[in-house]
Structure formats: structure tokens, C-alpha cells
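User: For a benchmark we're assembling, each entry needs the component sequences followed by a predicted structure for the full assembly. Here are entry 17's components. Please fill in the structure.
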Amino acid sequence: MKKLPLSFYQRNNVLEIAKDLLGKLLVTKFDDITTSARIVEVEAYAGVNDKASHAVGGRRTERNEIMYAKGGFTYVYLCYGIHHLFNVVTNKKEIPHAILIRAVEPTEGISIMQDRTRKKVLDNTLTRGPGNVSKALGIFTYHSGLDLVRSDIRIVDDGFQYKKKEIAVTTRIGVDYAGPDALLPYRFIVRDNPYVSGKRR
DNA sequence: CGACCGATCGTCT
DNA sequence: GACGATCGGTCGA
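Assistant: Structure for entry 17:
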């Protein structure tokens, strides 16, 4: 159980970092309650030139300001007025790269997750899709701007690693508004993992 | 299984 | 005033 160091997040290739996040454990510990889950689906958002990114064209607002911080912080924002989407900020200060965690496979605290999501039946939708990930792990927009190395949201390496063959790359979900950038191969998924959202391919 | 649709509100124009 | 980096329920095939 090794916490990922700042250097992991501060590399300049957001696609590489996104791929490397697959298999790592996302852990939250709030009010002495720990839940953890293995990351199985991520999407990279590649800064000012990426039309799907909140930072497209250098757009800088109160909401996305944390994207311009150095790598290793959380960026959580509200989507559709309902869902709290969890992102990891990467690269150096002033380079607004981020990675959206879209799906995880529960490893610890499953009953807690079931309580948080208020799901009646326990199935693969528990932590499938970015909205459910945050809900299950207890992450809200007020957790935006936390330091992943020092805070109660952390990402750790327990030695597990997916094989190269198990990882697939696809286009991102729900970013049709980005025009041609919607076709970029920036989504990384674990093949055949039941928690992965959207279409397989 | 796929298509459709309503929920719900902070953020940006 | 419009619109989401979504989800879950419903309806029909």
C-alpha cells in the first residue's frame, strides 16, 4: 500500500497518467469511515487545446481554477445539478490537465457504499459511471481542491497491475459538444470489467 | 436491450 | 436564461 507521490501526477503526459491510474485504489476516509475501490475507467482532459475540457482556450473561472494548480489536487464539480464528478489534476502549475474517474470496482466498505448510493439491490451499477463513483465514495464538490498526497482522499498502489492486453482505449463519453475533439482516443477502460460505464468497444 | 425523458442547480453568458 | 464530462426509471421491441 503505497500512496502515489506528487511526481506521479506532475508528469506532462496526461494520457500516460490516465492509463497508469487504472488498477490503482481510490481511497476516502471521512469521519473515520474508509471506503476504497480500484480504478477501472478514466478519461483524460488535455488542457487549453482540448475542446471538451473546462479549460479550453485558457478558460479560467472560480470553478475550474484548481485545474491550473500543480498536479496532485482534486477537482470536483457539479454536473446536471445532481452529480459530483471527481477529477485528478495533473501536470505542472498553469497547465490545466485533468483526469475524470468514470468507474471503479469496490474493494472495501461495500455496505457503506450501498448506504450512500441508496441502492436497493447490490450490483455493478454501484460504482459505475462518474456520478456513482463520487456518490459511493462520499465525494462532493466541497472536496474540490484537496491535496491527494495529504488529505483524506488518496490514491494508492497496492501492487496490482492490469496487463496491457486488458486495457482498451476509446473516445470519451458525453462530449459531443467538443466537435472533432470528441473523437480523440482519451478514454481508458479495463476490458470486460463489469463496472465500466457506457459502451465497450 | 435501446431510446427516451425528467430531475435539478451551479455556473457562465 | 441556457445548459451540462449523468442517472435511473419507463416503455416498447
